[in-house]
Specification:
Helix content is about 55%, strand content about 10%.
């Protein structure tokens, strides 16, 4: 399976040592997946970006259904601010990406209850070693002092986005404090390629965290 960027971002949020997705890493995950899809659309030349606003370019919709749905949400004439396209449908983002991974055998989904009362899906990754390797590769872009220009763009994006969301399956608080300058350099490189999107992701996450929400259904 060749995973899309949203699929990798979903998997990287899994806490291998706990054997689950931790509740604090679920906040902002819908926004994370949509930002991943928007990054791929920008990479593939399907977006026009003007003064940190975005518009959908004419062309054929992406083959991936999740990316196609995000692309169709975008305006096709007047550019609009990134934030609405990261934030407003975040609650719908997780299920289609998770279901793609389940169909590929990368995760299993079972029905359970939170605190023995509230029905909820339980998701487990099928290959924890692959997730650990992905997390370590992303961490290495920061911890190993790598030149940002040499980092593959998808790995750079995963490092930057998970840092913005303070994703504990990837970063400790000490990591984020100690490696501020390395992260700053990676963020600057990302912003050169997709100006405005990273800030919109961070703003959406902070807004969701303030009200104790932000995860997807």
């Amino acid at each position: 399976m060749t995973a899309t960027l949203p699929q990798r971002l979903y998997l990287i949020c899994y806490s291998v040592d706990k054997g689950k997705f931790k509740l604090d890493d679920m906040q902002g995950r819908g926004q994370l997946l949509r930002a991943g899809a928007l990054t791929e659309l920008a990479r593939d030349g399907l977006l026009g970006i003007t003064e940190k606003k975005v518009v959908r370019k004419p062309g054929r919709a992406p083959h991936d259904p999740f990316a196609a749905s995000v692309w169709q949400d975008l305006p096709d004439s007047t550019p609009k601010n990134w934030l609405r396209f990261v934030h407003n449908k975040a609650h719908t983002a997780e299920t289609p990406v998770r279901d793609q991974l389940a169909a590929a055998g990368e995760v299993t989904v079972s029905r359970g209850k939170v605190m023995g009362l509230i029905p909820a899906d339980r998701v487990a990754v099928s290959n924890p070693e692959k997730v650990t390797a992905l997390q370590e590769r992303v961490r290495g872009t920061v911890l190993d002092g790598v030149d940002p220009a040499s980092v593959p763009f998808e790995e750079l994006t995963m490092a930057v986005f998970t840092a913005e969301l303070e994703t504990s399956s990837v970063w400790s608080n000490a990591d984020l404090r100690t490696h501020k300058q390395a992260l700053k350099a990676l963020k600057a490189r990302y912003d050169e390629s997709v100006p405005g999107l990273r800030k919109a992701l961070r703003d959406s996450y902070l807004s969701s965290r303030a009200v104790g929400g932000g995860w997807s259904a």
